[in-house]
Structure formats: C-alpha cells, structure tokens
Amino acid sequence: MKLFRIEKNDSDQRLDKFLKKIFPVATRSLIYKFNRKDKIKIKHNLSEWKFKKMDNEYRLQEWDEIKIFLDDKEFNLLSEKKENMIINNNEEKFYKNDIVYEDWDLLVVNKNSWINVHSWDHKTKESNLICQVQDYLWDKLNSLTFKPSLIHRIDRDTSWILMIAKKKDILTKISADFKTHEKVKKTYYAIVLWKLPKKKGTIKENILRIEDAKNENKVQISEDWKKAITHYKSLKEHIIQTEQWVLILTELEVRIDTWRMHQIRIHLANLWNSILGDKVYWDKKLNSYFANNYWLTRQALHSWKINFFHYWREKNIELIANIKSDLVDFINKLK
Known about the structure:
Number of strands: 15
Number of domains: 3
CATH class of the largest domain: Alpha Beta
CATH topology of the largest domain: Pseudouridine synthase
C-alpha cells in the first residue's frame, strides 16, 4: 500500500488523470479497474478520518490523501522511474552559469542557440533544455505529477531568455500574461545589414502566416492580415570592406508590441535590414561569407531582456540575459 498527500501543484485535476501520471505504463482501462476493485481510496480533507472510493472524474483538492492498494512489485512496474529522467552524459548537463534568475516559483535561463527546447522539437534524440532543467530541479520539487514547464517557446537557432514555471498556478498565470501581452514586455538584440532609415523607428506592417507553405516563405507582409508592431533603436554601426563589397552592419535594440511568428525577422527584412545569418529572409552568399570568415553560423538575434509581473513578489521585475559569447566575439572581430 502507498499513501500520497496532494500538494497544491497536484490539485485540481481529475483522479484518473492523476493516476495516469503516477502510472504512465498503465492503460486507462487498467486504472479504471483499480478504482472499480476498490484499490484507490481517498480521504477528502484533514477533518475526515475515513478513506472512501471516489469517481474517476473526482477533482483532487489540496490536502487530499490517497491510498493505493498495490504491492511494491506491481507499483514499481507501472510507475515512472526517477532514473529515466536523469541525463548521464556530462556534456548534456544543464549549466548553472546560464541561470538568469531563480526562486521558489520560477527558473529563468539564458538559452544557447542550437539547443532544442523539447524532446519532440525537430524530431531528434538530441539533448533538450526542458529535460536538462527537470534533471537539475529534480530534488527541489515536491510535486507528484507536475514537472517544470516552459511558459513560452523559442526557435532552436536563437539564443533566448526563457522562463520555466516550477508551480502549476504560476504557469497558468504568466502563460495567460504572455497571451494577452499586457504584463510582459520583451526586448531583443540583433545585428542587421546596412543602416536603418532612422536611429529610432517603428515598423507597422501586417503579417500573414501561411500554414502549408512549400515554395514560399511561411510568413509574409500582407495588408489584409494580422497587425504587427516593431520598435527599433540603433546602438552601433560597423563598416566591413571585402574584395567584393563594402558592408555596413548595425547593432539594434528591438522591442515588439505584437508577438507574431518571425515578426522581427520579416519586418527588418522588409526594410532591407535583414538579420545576419537568417536562413530564410537573407542572402545565402552573405551567410556563407560570415560563416567562413567570422564563424557566425546562426541568426544574430538574441532575446535580451524581459519585464513581467511576478505574482509571488507582487511587482514588475526586469531580467537581462547576457548577449551570448558567439555574438560578442563576432562584434569584437569587426573591431
């Protein structure tokens, strides 16, 4: 027999879904059978003394206690093993130097480029950030079913300030803020080709997303589609003279009011100020030149700062993720 007490992170979910997370190997019909055969009993709150059978649809509440009447062999066979979550390759461990901020609710990291966020991204078996984070946080969490979860997503080849929720209610609240954009502001750093039309400016061009694009860009400028607003500010300009070209590169600070797919990339490209290394909205010859001569092998875009409302601290806070070393090295080579 096993006894569990429901904590806040595990509350407000159906009993059958909770049991499915405890027993990931078990089929749903087997879980229903356990309940039907009185192998699952619940004590509803601390004031009660008797454990009762509950319907599969019963929503668990904080401080509920659950007894599962299975022997150790059967329980271990059906339950997930902790060691399955641990990454054994030291090269794939999560680096603590990439932590921007951490408290009881949140972990904020400075994601490196070319690291997948989820295991299913790009259909690869490579290491992924969320698995590394869960491995790092394993002993710090007391939830039976809730695992650290991403609050928002990002492209694989972009470095990024990335927020991970340690608690279910924080995940729900801040994810909602990301959807409304009201309490979250994001600032980016980019390196683009040529000078901008003005030192400071705002781009207002509607964006069309084409779901089944094949021989065309997935995102395009379109007057009749969704509004997109991008603000930019030039930070510094650099001149490069090669055998073929005289190029001007500009470091930018970019802030967006709307969060459309590829918004920064397509807006800047539409001004003829494409982001260096962009494989979709830029010139392949220039990509090859900077890769071969400056070792710039990804798009020069970095999620730099984030300002959001912290519900536990009850105030807005701003966090800064240092610009990654590959972009810093690139700028230093230009000098």
